[in-house]
Amino acid sequence: MALAGKGIAAYDLPERVAAYDADMELMHPNRGRMVEVALEVLPFPHEAPLRAVDLGTGTGFLARRFLERFPTANVVAVDGAGAMLDLARARLGPLASRVEFVVGDFRRLDSLGFVLEADAVLSTFALHHLTAYEKRAVLRLVASGLRPGGWFVNADLVLSEWPEVEERIQALRVAGIVGRAAGRDPRFADPAATRAWLDEMEAREGDQPLPLAEDLALAREAGLQVEVFWKEYREAVWGGPPSP
Fold first, then answer.
1. Beta carbons of 187 and 194 less than 8 angstroms apart
2. Of 156, 18, 140, 146, nearest to 81 (Cα)?
3. Does a structural domain hold residue 1?
4. Helices (H) and strands (E) in the chain, counts
5. Which CATH number do you get for residue 74?
6. Which end of the chain offers a freer environment for a tag, N or C, measured as fewer CB atoms within 10 Å?
7. Rounded to an integer, what is the distance from CA 68 to the centroid of its chain?
8. The pLDDT of residue 6 is above 50
9. SS3 sequence, 141-176?
10. pLDDT tens digits along 133-145
11. Residues of the domain holding 170
């Protein structure tokens, strides 16, 4: 998902869009499980005519699964990169008839020309591009825009609170990517090449994940009752309804 400035530029390049899902499979093999958890915790019957907002839709990975799980629901798909939304629209096929595609920076949700009011606000691998200040501001808008009984769920990257633990998690991350690439991708030929590529990619795309405890604290300050539903190494799924 792209946000603004160099972040949107990085995701709006044709080569980045074309490689995005393949790279996600290499770097985040838990993505499918994370989306499963994000959807199964939503407290809605499958036939409910929900309105959901997907922050950072990317290629439509989450939106497709949401629409399949809730066959009478609609989605507002927000992303800063128009090229990503074009690919999402194509990949969703007939499901795209239930999607409103919005090109824009979701840090300014209140200025994108649609009503945020929703039963569910969802996000995958997007909020880690925000600063803590920006994330709190977005979550405040989310909390105020959820309908009674609505939920926010986020599946994203987190840091360890301890440098030594983060170093070990990063080593496991690199080893996993090298193993899954299995020599077929020169970017990930060995740990050194992989680490260099990841560092360059994260700088280009403006990655700035926070420790999970800080994410939860920001969400609670913003007016959400959040809990952790799943976590493995540097990936987590958390969320909940607005505070009463």
1. yes
2. 18
3. no
4. 9, 7
5. 3.40.50.150
6. C
7. 18
8. no
9. HHHHHEEEEEEEEEEEECECCCHHHHHHHHHHHHHH
10. 999 999 999 999 9
11. 163-203
